[in-house]
Amino acid sequence: MSYLTKNYNRKKISFTRGKGSYLYTSNGTKYLDFVQGIAVNSLGHAHPKLVETIKKQSKKLWHVSNSFTIPEGEILAKKIAKKTFADYIMFQNSGAEATEAAIKVAKRYFYTTGRPHKNRILCVKNSFHGRTLAAIYASGSKKMTEGFGPKVGGFDHFIFGDHKSLKKKINKNTAAIMVETILGEGGIKVIPDWCLRELRKICNKKKILLILDEVQCGIGRSGDFFAFEKSKIKPDIVPIAKGIGGGFPIGAVLMNKKVASGMTAGTHGSTFGGNPLAMKIGSEVFDIISSKKFLNNVKKNSKYFHDELNKIKDNFPKLIKEVRGRGFLIGLQLYMEQTKFIGDLMKNKLLTIRAAENVIRILPPLNVKKSEINQAIKIISKVCLKYK
Ligand SMILES: *Cc1c(COP(=O)(O)O)cnc(C)c1O
């Protein structure tokens, strides 16, 4: 029997080793891993530079309290600030923590500027911001909040793509709009660039903040370092996590100077957040992924993948409804329920994962090889034939 709680519907399979795009079971069976811990292992498994970084830093210093200066964190924060919209960074350990902290930052900003009534956050109905109490109520999902009442207040919801409902839900108490730039769990739904620009305009006009949750779609996943960059807008607050640690748990909230002003001493903290080991690893991942050359390669290879998947879609028009997403955040939407299809891909040694709306989520490491993409294409085509 398993002594673990039953809050996951786990597959029987387990892995003992990973290398790059591949996972290996104890008997040596090799799987092409296009889940990568759900967009976490951004550089694949056991990347040599990350292995080296962990080895080196683990001999020097793992953890010290945030009541002391942590130079490794200062360095990573500076790197992020120099290359992104952010003026200030607050390190956490996970995505949910980062989104919750982002909400705290927004609320504190209005509190400290004499507008404490502006404390409500407007989110997309059935979005995903993590599993903490506040985050599940931010999602507005009935399923995720069932049995966890009383309701955590302070969240309003609008329907994805429904601009009227968005405008209607903004009132004098709204502090911020918080959306995933690309909805991940919700079915790989991209907010078009023009909508992001409109969102920014609305926020400016109503004097409210724009929080873009880039926990899943950020850190190079979309082909740009952040998914919002293509739209040329600047958000106020951006929670990140998944990809930034390359497999090591790291989260962070990035923000501009204006909103950072509310975060005075004692307003937030995290025992583990930003420790030297995490910061060294985060720095290495950031250096690699934020380089123009690396991102151009993500753009090029992911375009090839999208093109090939669209060819498959054209060949199986009754099976595949849409190829969604951007960069290496890819959704293959089927007309039918996708569980069996995912199982068949797995039987053919390709790992993928579900998302809402019958979507098969495909998340290769950002440094995936073209030959590995070709291998996946072959397997997907083969499984499609079965359903023809
Ligand atoms: C995964 C995810 C989170 C939550 O991250 P955890 O590390 O699981 O807490 C939050 N927001 C988005 C968009 C995510 O995809």
Describe the structure.
By secondary structure, the protein is α/β, with parallel strands linked by helices. The chain has two domains: 17-47 and 292-386, Alpha-Beta Complex (Aspartate Aminotransferase, domain 1), CATH 3.90.1150; 49-289, 3-Layer(aba) Sandwich (Aspartate Aminotransferase, domain 2). Helix content is 38%, strand content 18%. The protein contains 13 helices and 17 strands. The strands form five sheets. A four-stranded mixed β-sheet has the order 1-2-3-15. Strand 2 (22-24) and strand 3 form a beta hairpin. Helix 2 (48-60) packs antiparallel against helix 10, helix 3 (71-83) runs parallel beside helix 10 (276-289) and helix 11 runs parallel beside helix 13. The longest helix has 24 residues, at 292-315. The radius of gyration is 21 Å and the shape is globular. 47% of the residues are buried. Bound molecules: pyridoxal-5'-phosphate (PLP).
